[in-house]
Amino acid sequence: MTVPRPDPPEARRGLVGPFTARQLATALVVVLTAAIVLVVAKQPLAAPGTTPPVDPRATQYLVGSAGEGLRVGDRAPELEIAGPGGSPAPLRDLDGKPVQLADLRGRPVWITFWASWCPPCQAETPTIRDLATAYAPQGLAVIGISVQEATEADVRAYAARYGLRHTIAADLAGDVFRRYRVFGLPTQYFLDRDGVVRSIVQGPVTPASAASNLALLGLEAPIASPAALAAPAP
Which of 153-158's residues contact partners 24+ apart within 8 Å by CB, and which partners? Predict the structure, then answer.
């Protein structure tokens, strides 16, 4: 006599297809956490006229493999991007004006590569803003080049939020970024009056460390702001 076999148990059905409610809830938590982290990373860490609440000597944010890059003693490449048809065109600031090192010969230049979503960049922004103003009477030209941004509007909003008055440009396609072979943010280049690189800082600056690098360009620490330059160098 043949004993009938019991029917196989019915396959357990999930809330959505093969997924259970617990699996879907876990996935949702992961997505929300990632979104919150992204939003927090893009928030400014200090408003104009305030001190950043984090240590501006934070680790440089790497965006590529460390390479040789420029060296002290090299002449800094011109700030060019790909124009119509791929021909070289000058980088332009947020007002649409060309930013060219050739026009700044005879002046010391501080170029800083940064991004609005980069925490170390956010931390040093008030320092760069204040020193750009303090050293302007000595002829210092500060050029902030924002990279890896979604739109120029994001850069414009960041500059307005921090009250930045020095030259700001959005290198959206990363043309200048690649010419300078930058691999981390922020990265600083200090150029003498002939456009030669005299110092390179891989990472954020403090008021004191910036002043020591600007001294290599023949600039004196402004007497009007000794407190801003009293912070210890990294």
Answer: 154/116, 155/94, 155/116, 156/94, 157/116, 158/44, 158/116
Greater model confidence, 65 or 130? 130
Distance CA 215, CA 221 (A): 8
Say if strands 109-114 and 141-147 run parallel, antiparallel, or are unpaired: parallel
Query: Minimum mean pLDDT among 64-68, 95-99, 208-212: which range?
Result: 64-68
Q: Which residues are bridge partners to 232 per DSSP? A: none
CB contact at 8 A, 132 and 166: yes
Please, which residues have CB within 8 angstroms of residue 177's CB and are 6 or more apart in sequence? 113, 145, 147, 148, 171
- The pTM for the full model equals 0.72
Kindly tell me if the per-residue pLDDT of 36 is higher than 50: no
Please say whether the beta carbons of 112 and 128 come within 8 A: yes
Instruction: Let me know: does 230 contact 51? Beta carbons within 8 Å.
Output: no
Q: Say if residue 44 is preceded by a cis peptide, omega within 30 of 0.
A: no
Q: Tokens 């001294």 — which residue?
A: 215
Nearest to residue 20, comparing CAs of 28, 9, 12? 12
Q: Say if residue 223's pLDDT is above 60.
A: yes
Task: Check residue 159 and give left, alpha or beta (phi > 0: left; psi -120 to 50: alpha).
Answer: alpha
- Give the Cα-Cα-Cα angle 216, 125, 137 (nearest 5 degrees): 50
